[in-house]
Amino acid sequence: MTVVQRESKETQIRIALGASAGAQPAIATTEPFLDHMLVALSRYSGVAFDISARGDLRHHLIEDVAIALGQAFASHAPATCARYGERTVPMDDALVQVVLDLGGRPFYRGPLPSGLYEHFFRSFADNAKATLHVRVLRGEDRHHIIEAAFKALGFCLRQALEETGAVFSTKGAVRLEVTG
Asked: The domain containing residue 25 runs over which residues?
């Protein structure tokens, strides 16, 4: 299990990633729509996680949850994971494609029709050290577009985290040591 705690003057966040398989996620961020999206992300990724978070502003809360969740996934991904994922998800009028590489190179390309959730996906990608492309192919309803993006990201994470027994890189496993 990976646990990330992030505290500042603006937010207090605790994420436990990789709880027992099949466990229902326990999400409490004080932001109901974010809770809804995180439950979907947990379910579709197949990774159980618990999140408790509170913050002074909606923007700070959403951004800092994305930062901590990205860090948790970066720590959670095994060196021998499949690394790549791709999924297109329809949700009523919305059709959203997400493509992911957990290869250690942070990059994000959107956009989503919400500045807050655009920032969530960018902060997640940066801190998960992932390349993440989100393409809104169709849609008018912002709720449906954002929810389809979270579900597609979940499916991508499920695919990318699959254990393969081999390192998917021509350079092999990268070892990094940082000393104080």
From this structure: 2-160
